[in-house]
Amino acid sequence: MLRSLRWRLWLLSLLVLGLTLASAGWVVVHLFERHVRAQFEARLQDHWIDVLASLHPDEAGSPQLDGKLADPRWSRQYGGLYFQVQRAGDVQPEPWLRSRSLWDERLSLPVDELADGTVHWHDLVGPGGQALRVMERTVQWSDTGGRWRVAVAADQRELLDAMDAFRESLALALGVVGAVLMAALGIQVNIGLKPLRALQAALQRVHQGQVTRLEGSFPTEVLPLVQDFNRTLAYDEQVVERARRLTGNLAHAIKTPLAAMVALAEDATWPGEDARRQWQEQVQAVRDQVDWHLRRARAAGAAGAARRTAVVPVLQGLLRVMDKVHARREGEPPVQWELRWPQPPVYFAGETQDLQEMAGNLMDNACKWARRAVRISVQGDGGQVVLAIEDDGPGIAPELREAVLARGIRADERVPGSGLGLDIVRETAALYGGELRLLESELGGLRAELWLPQG
Predict the structure, then answer these.
(1) C-alpha to C-alpha distance for 348 and 398, rounded to whole angstroms
(2) Among 183, 205, 364, 375, which is least packed, fewest CB within 10 Å?
(3) Residue 80 φ/ψ region, left for φ over 0, alpha for ψ in the -120 to 50 degree band, beta for the rest
(4) Is the pTM of this model over 0.85?
(5) Neighbouring residues of 240: CB distance < 8 A, sequence distance ≥ 6
(6) Tens digits of per-residue pLDDT, 18-31?
(7) Are residues 234 and 355 located together in one domain of the fold?
(8) Domain end: 256, 285, 302, which one?
(9) C-alpha distances out from residue 214 to 131, 222, 240, 433, Å
(10) H or E stretch including 374?
(11) Domains: count for the chain
């Protein structure tokens, strides 16, 4: 289930929505309770002022109730609204005055020292187990009458019931909002995943052979994936077409040697030694053609694959081989090698064997023609690896450089070789989207630049 993108979106949406609604509910309930309590305490202060306005000191300075309070709860037994007046400073004193609603009960006010004008709040258990909110202040009517604690209390049942009712209503409202939001999220998920379903349908059409490319209108977030996939499909088509062409070329190339071999086998008058020699020549021609086409096929298959080959270690390995192969040059001094590379090292986006074959051919040619020095340099240039191999030999005239890249063409017959090396390098580099350039070297000879994709 967790492998499904749809279920992941649903679970994430449920988690975020649940946390959001829970946080919002807690904040709203907290603000509502604070507001309701403030209103409740404000009314309690108004009741305290009413009680204080009805109290007057007698000749001894003691408070007396003057008249009847307007709210009937003051007189109804356990009516939920109470007042009590007692002398300040006494420990658990008997109330001097109290409302009729207290009946034979009293408010058990905590021992408290109140400064004049200071308001204190208490939560007490009142008559019948009522949860009371109490407000009290100290009052002094005259210098001889002493200080009196005047307390007013109200039952919080209506307040608590109102808060409970609000919580229930809020929970119901948030539940409805959550259901609506989940429905909206479901629609959003379906709409958001619609391009992926369209992509899946397009892939199915490609698999069924109805089309050769992913077709359709896709959003910008999916479009790069579609474009990369279409490029991969185009490359696969090129690989298949190239394989077909290579197969045809191979068949055409070995057709003539095979015909000659058949003729030699059927001609009984041909001398045995000559027949054997020509037979070996034709067999070698077939082998050369097969090897060459196999190399091209291998490079064609690897050109688009995700390979990554470090360039410098390959070159260092080839240098050790070249030192042994060209250690003794008849009538020529040993070759002085120079290898330059950048930091950090660069990588070729292709097969190690192909890089070895391309670089090895170029280095072998440089050794054959160099007088004393061969310089090899590597650098990265805009997403490409540039491998330059230079020598101080006679070089190649500009008008001959294009010709020597043709298969089997040699600029000078004095140095042994088949004339296939540069053509193999050029063909292999082209299969990777690269190229081989022949330029004039600062050393006086030829500069062969091999441009390849960087990994």
Answers:
(1) 29
(2) 183
(3) left
(4) no
(5) none
(6) 999 999 999 999 99
(7) no
(8) 302
(9) 73, 12, 19, 24
(10) strand 373-381
(11) 2
